[in-house]
Design goal:
By secondary structure, the protein is mostly helical. It is built from 3 helices and no strands. It has one domain. Helices cover 77% and strands 0% of the residues. Keywords: Membrane, Transmembrane, Transmembrane helix.
Amino acid sequence: MAVGTTARRGIDMFAGLLRIVGLLIVAVLVVHILLVVLEANPANTFAQTVAELADTFDLGLSNLFQYSEAKLSVILNYGIAAAIWFLITAVVVRLVRRLG
């Protein structure tokens, strides 16, 4: 096996790992939106954990829009953060594969 092939395989694995991490972050944000919209019990451990993780990955956008309807604010703010994370993930994965 050539050195270039091994390096390429390692880069592809790293890019795949980055894609998985990015998509997990997007999934946390989307699940948080769903839990809020479907009015999950906020005292539930799962809902609390997802909310805390979503607050970690919100890119400071959790209060970008503040409507009187809290659900709409969550959909917009966390939805925009999820879209940005998706875009960041796609760009970083593409750069890693291109540079490799």
